[in-house]
Write a structure and sequence with these properties.
Elements lengths: L1 H36 L6 H26 L7 H17 L4 H25 L5 H17 L5
């Protein structure tokens, strides 16, 4: 029986590789093309620039991956991320040191996610689509009505 499981795993790995081989080929082709045509493309400075530009997207993607693995999808993630940025700015503007403001914003984001989106989905059984879309609309409207001018 373990031999059968090993064959299934090898077959699934081969199928996954073949499914993404085209994308990998295009990626390698693009990197090669731009490396040959742009002298500053394949440099350490450009690599760090790309990582710096996509750091927030990478962090948010990790969190969204767990949501998707659980069978859901969070439409409100961008709005909650923006709300966290506003909270961080407000804390820093009121003199809270950065080392204290970042953990406070992370805890506030976790609490917001657990109470506002997690509770209705997990306990009340409301559809994740309805809850996260509602939170997205609410957060977007909050930003639209908080114009300081």
């Amino acid at each position: 029986m373990p031999e059968l499981a090993g064959r299934n795993l090898a077959r699934r790995a081969r199928d996954a590789f073949l499914e993404y081989a085209g994308v990998l080929t295009v990626l390698i082709g693009l990197v090669t093309f731009f490396s040959l045509n742009q002298s500053r493309f394949f440099t350490v400075a450009n690599f760090w620039n790309v990582l710096d530009s996509s750091a927030i997207l990478l962090i948010v993607s990790v969190g969204l991956t767990f949501t998707m693995l659980a069978g859901g999808f969070d439409l409100s993630i961008g709005g909650v991320l923006a709300l966290g940025g506003v909270c961080l700015w407000l804390l820093l503007d009121h003199g809270v040191p950065l080392w204290a403001a970042i953990p406070l914003v992370v805890l506030a984001g976790v609490a917001f996610g657990a109470i506002v989106t997690g509770f209705p989905i997990a306990v009340l059984g409301v559809s994740f689509f309805v809850v996260t879309l509602g939170v997205l609309i609410a957060v977007a409207n909050a930003f639209g009505t908080t114009d300081p001018s």
